[in-house]
DNA sequence: CGGATTTGACCAGCGC
DNA sequence: GCGCTGGTCAAATCCG
């Protein structure tokens, strides 16, 4: 969990969340985005809810292994508007890192995509965003202007 | 006033 | 078994 294995999806139909930079100078001019495809670590879906704890032995909870995608972004701001609506549900201090890690969940009903945002302490200009799961609904974005698309193309072409 | 955020508690997994 | 660590919950708080 120190550094994510960064490997580049070559021919994979990688469906990436779109990064759009809300403030125009949010990312430095030589912006880079590294895409890391974390190998499917089997995340136990979630701890059995501690409220309805009727039969703890019943839920053996098939180990759903959700895909996790790590995005390393060189940015000064740590919240990138990727077009989805996120609700923050937690924040923890990570060891060997003086910056906390934030946990977000997609607010769309029925869509439980999670993401966590973490800033590297070795280089505080790098923000690691880890997506977990895939959205099952279209992006709700108020406006999709050319400028954003061009920005994305700039970003994604920087490592090809 | 309603939805989002904050923040400490809680819980499970893992290493020792 | 115990303590540390990461992930989540939920009540309180904030903010539009």
UniProtKB/TrEMBL annotation:
InterPro entries registered for this protein in UniProt: WRKY_dom, WRKY_dom_sf, WRKY_plant
Residue span of region Disordered: 1-67
Presence of keyword Transcription regulation: yes
SMART domains, per database record: WRKY (SM00774)
GO terms for cellular component: nucleus
Comp. bias regions, Basic and acidic residues: 48-64
Predominant cellular place of this UniProt entry's protein: nucleus
Annotated signal sequence range: none
GO MF term set: DNA-binding transcription factor activity; sequence-specific DNA binding
PANTHER family, per database record: WRKY TRANSCRIPTION FACTOR 75-RELATED (PTHR31221:SF83), WRKY TRANSCRIPTION FACTOR PROTEIN 1-RELATED (PTHR31221)
Descriptive protein name: WRKY transcription factor
Source organism: Musa troglodytarum (fe'i banana)
